[in-house]
């Protein structure tokens, strides 16, 4: 096993993968049908038969095609949940957990809408950690809603899924949370993202705020008491100004673990 792992690390590193050893270990564990922490520390175990071929194929997909590990394994951890993901949805990222944290203090039984739910990560994490919340998740993509629905059913979490353009037709609500598209057109992104993740969930005009402008305005018109949005690096101040213009009198910026102002929270 050690030889197979070391060869994979070399191949991934040569391909420009940022975390070759981590990725190799995750892919090996997946091929063996186990978890990464369960891999033998001494590397003496033998990888045989179908597991060898599965591991080799996974390393090829990761190195040659630069396919994200989460799409190869089909699973991504988010908060306390393991979500099933594929190319129909964005891969949930650690920085988006900051968005969930911003909404955990909502009043009991608040009606919260997760806009652009994708895999259902934010909506499902909120329902998991705050079962009292009435959570609705919207997305314009039927494919994304299918992924979110499957995750909700598998995890046994009761959320309401609606095909909608942002907040169109969702009715009365108390809070809005969203990880909307916020990447500027023409931005230089890693091949893992450009080649594999859905463009409609990434790009939002020349400044990356085209979707945010519409969403903040809708949240204001619907008199949402609370709004929390994930934003790109350098966008927080502009989004705060949009929120204030929409009637949210108090705003707060929250940094992710990398120190980037990643979430703008606003209260009416």
What does this structure look like?
- By secondary structure, the chain is α/β, with parallel strands linked by helices.
- The protein is 39% helix and 17% strand.
- The protein has helices at 2-14, 20-32, 49-63, 69-73, 97-103, 121-129, 142-155, 191-196, 210-221, 236-245; strands spanning 75-78, 81-84, 111-115, 134-139, 160-163, 175-178, 226-230, 250-255, 261-267.
- The chain has 10 helices and 9 strands.
- The longest helix is centred in the N-terminal third of the chain and has 15 residues, at 49-63.
- It is elongated.
- α1 (2-14) runs parallel beside α3 (49-63), α2 runs antiparallel to α3 and α5 (97-103) packs across α6 (121-129).
- The model has no long low-confidence stretch (mean pLDDT 94).
- Strands 5-4-3-6-7-9-8 form a 7-stranded mixed sheet, sandwiched between helices.
What is the H/E string?
HHHHEEHEHEHEEHHEHEE
Strand order of the largest sheet: 5-4-3-6-7-9-8
Q: Count of DSSP E strands?
A: 9
The proportion of strand residues reads 15-25%
Taking the sheet with the most strands, its summary is:
7 strands, mixed
State the helical fraction. 25-40%
Principal-axis shape: elongated
Count helical runs. Answer: 10
Query: What value does the Rg take, in angstroms?
Result: 20 Å
User: Residue-averaged pLDDT, rounded?
Assistant: 94
């Amino acid at each position: 096993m050690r030889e197979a792992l070391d060869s994979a690390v070399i191949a991934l590193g040569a391909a420009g993968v940022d975390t070759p050893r981590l990725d190799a270990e995750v892919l090996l564990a997946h091929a063996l049908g186990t978890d990464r922490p369960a891999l033998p520390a001494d590397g003496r175990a033998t990888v045989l038969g179908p597991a060898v071929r599965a591991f080799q194929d996974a390393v090829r997909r990761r190195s040659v095609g630069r396919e994200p590990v989460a799409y190869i394994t089909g699973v991504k951890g988010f908060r306390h949940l393991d979500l099933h993901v594929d190319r129909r949805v964005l891969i949930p990222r650690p920085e988006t957990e900051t968005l969930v944290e911003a909404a955990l203090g909502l009043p009991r039984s608040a009606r919260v809408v997760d806009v652009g739910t994708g895999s259902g990560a934010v909506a499902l994490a909120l329902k998991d950690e705050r079962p009292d919340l009435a959570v609705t998740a919207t997305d314009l993509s039927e494919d994304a809603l299918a992924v979110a629905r499957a995750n909700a059913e598998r995890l046994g979490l009761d959320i309401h899924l609606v095909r909608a353009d942002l907040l169109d037709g969702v009715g009365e609500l108390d809070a809005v949370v969203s990880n909307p598209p916020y990447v500027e057109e023409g931005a230089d992104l890693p091949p893992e993202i450009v080649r594999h993740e859905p463009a409609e969930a990434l790009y939002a005009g020349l400044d990356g705020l085209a979707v945010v402008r519409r969403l903040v305005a809708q949240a204001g018109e619907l008199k949402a008491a609370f709004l929390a949005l994930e934003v790109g690096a350098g966008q927080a101040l502009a989004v705060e100004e949009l929120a204030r213009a929409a009637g949210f009198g108090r705003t707060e910026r929250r940094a992710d673990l990398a120190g980037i102002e990643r979430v703008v929270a606003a209260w009416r």
